[in-house]
Write a structure and sequence with these properties.
Largest sheet of chain B: 6 strands, antiparallel
Order of helices and strands of chain B: HEHEEHHHEEEHHHHHHHE
Distance between the termini of chain A: 10 Å
Helix content of chain B: 40-55%
Mean pLDDT of chain B: 79
Shape of chain B: globular
Strand content of chain B: 5-15%
Number of strands of chain B: 7
Radius of gyration of chain B: 26 Å
Mean pLDDT of chain A: 87
Shape of chain A: globular
Oligomer: heterodimer
Number of strands of chain A: 8
Chain lengths: 135, 320
């Protein structure tokens, strides 16, 4: 079953660790400030994302500037379970710290189309071809 | 920078338990501290894996740090391991409040735990605390906290314990020889029973094995004979089989199965695809094959999980 994503309407949800915003068929995930991304937090973010996706793959724009620390088990969970139902992933990194965490994640070669950007506009441009048209 | 230097020196000594205390900054120095902490954690996990496999010759000893506190959390007694791990002189910290040895976040956690449990006369709890060493490094520790009741020698005292794995003394490269024995006194080695030849991993082999893991994650959907994986990453079946187990602690097939089942679990929970199509999506030939392996691994069937996962579907709130 496909859900219709309104092209104009902006939709928003947040939990303790991140906010989730659907805009023009792209899911924006922004991690909260000073977040320590340990395993339960990573699981909660993936679970919230999948609940919102209703079984459909989506292009995702992920802003990890807020993340202060990541544990090894959280990183491994994000590489395996965290790559489910992602058609493409754009990571926005603007600080040396977020750039480091993106590099560490990329080194693990998650099985998804993935690119890192400094600017959000470029990231959106990269994701646009992966937006699926409403059925 | 000083803390980073201390951390690297501790790693040289074989101590991978400590971490650099993190701040809320996000600059280059903070990224360097985070990278070193991450590397330390990876090495520590790898050592635990190898010590599990080779308990006789890598990291076999455990050490325990303990603190006995009075009813108001002041330190009454500690052991020598506290000095070894945190560098504090035992006498120097006696009578000090225990929370002064903790990071700010852990101080709050400690206060909450003790406050929550203080009503009951005797209690025990597990809590993850971060100690601050005298050199300013952080020691994350899974602690067991026991409060004794009004009776007995430890009346109204709190015992905090934490265990660590240290280099085994049998590993001569990591610990100094305690006593020199002249060659003449050393008995000639006994003839050993036929032992399997030790497999050594070279950096080129490690590169191939890492590439094999990437190949597996990219091709989970398709059948993956060992020979095909080996050829695709430029190695042979034997090296791949032995090296993969050595590096990741799982056989290639165990790893493939694990990855497939972990993905299948999420697809069962968060999609309404049939078990048969999920099986195909993650590389199982048939739905019943997935169900059988799924039950073995998670102790419930995919159908049971699907039933448990059916609930009100979450959706976005519309922004106004």
């Amino acid at each position: 079953m496909a859900i219709f994503i309104n092209e104009v309407m902006r939709k928003y949800v947040e939990n303790d660790f991140a906010s989730f915003r659907m805009e023009k068929g792209i899911l924006h995930i922004t991690y909260k400030e000073t977040l320590c991304l340990y395993l339960p937090a990573a699981m909660a973010v993936v679970s919230q994302r999948l609940l919102l996706q209703h079984g459909m793959p989506f292009p995702i724009l992920c802003d990890i500037r807020g993340v202060n620390d990541v544990t090894v088990d959280a990183k491994e969970y994000l590489v395996t379970e965290g790559s489910v139902l992602i058609s493409a992933l754009a990571m926005v990194t603007k600080t040396p710290l977020s750039h480091l965490y993106t590099e560490i994640y990329t080194l693990e070669s998650p099985p998804i189309t993935l690119k890192t950007f400094r600017e959000e506009t470029m990231a959106l441009e990269f994701l646009r071809p992966f937006v699926h048209s409403p059925i | 920078m000083q803390k980073i230097t201390h951390q690297i020196l501790e790693m040289f000594k074989g101590n991978f338990s400590l971490r650099i205390e993190r701040t809320n900054l996000k600059d280059d120095l903070e990224a360097l501290a985070a990278a070193i902490n991450f590397l330390t954690e990876e090495i520590h996990e790898s050592i635990l894996h190898h010590s599990y496999k080779n308990p006789d010759n890598i990291f076999g000893l455990t050490a325990q740090m303990y603190f006995i506190l009075d009813g108001s959390s002041r330190i009454v007694k500690t052991n020598n391991s506290v000095h070894k791990f945190l560098n504090y002189n035992q006498q120097g910290i006696l009578n000090n409040p225990f929370p002064t040895l903790l990071s700010k976040e852990s101080q709050k956690k400690w206060k909450d735990t003790v406050g929550r449990l203080s009503g009951s006369s005797e209690w025990e709890s597990s809590i993850r605390l971060s100690f601050l060493s005298q050199t300013g490094l952080v020691l994350p520790a899974e602690c067991n906290v026991t409060h004794f009741g009004k009776d007995g020698v430890l009346s109204d005292k709190i015992l905090v314990t934490s265990c660590y794995i240290l280099p085994s003394k049998k590993n001569l490269a990591l610990s100094p020889l305690e006593r020199y024995e002249p060659l003449s006194q050393i008995a000639p080695p006994k003839p050993q029973k036929t032992k399997r030849k030790k497999h050594i991993l070279y950096s080129s082999d490690i590169g191939c094995i890492r590439a094999a893991r990437e190949y597996i994650t990219d091709h989970l959907q398709s059948p993956m004979p060992l020979i095909e994986i080996a050829h695709n990453v430029g190695t042979n079946e034997y090296k791949l089989k032995r090296g993969f187990k050595e590096l990741y602690g799982l056989t290639v097939f165990q790893y493939i199965k694990d990855q497939r089942l972990r993905k299948a679990r999420l697809l069962v929970m968060y999609t309404n695809k049939s078990i048969r199509s999920i099986a195909k999506l993650v590389g199982f030939k048939k739905g019943n094959h997935l169900s059988r392996e799924f039950k073995k691994r998670f102790h419930y069937s995919p159908t049971d999980l699907r039933m448990m996962s059916i609930g009100p579907k979450e959706d976005f709130n519309t922004l106004t």
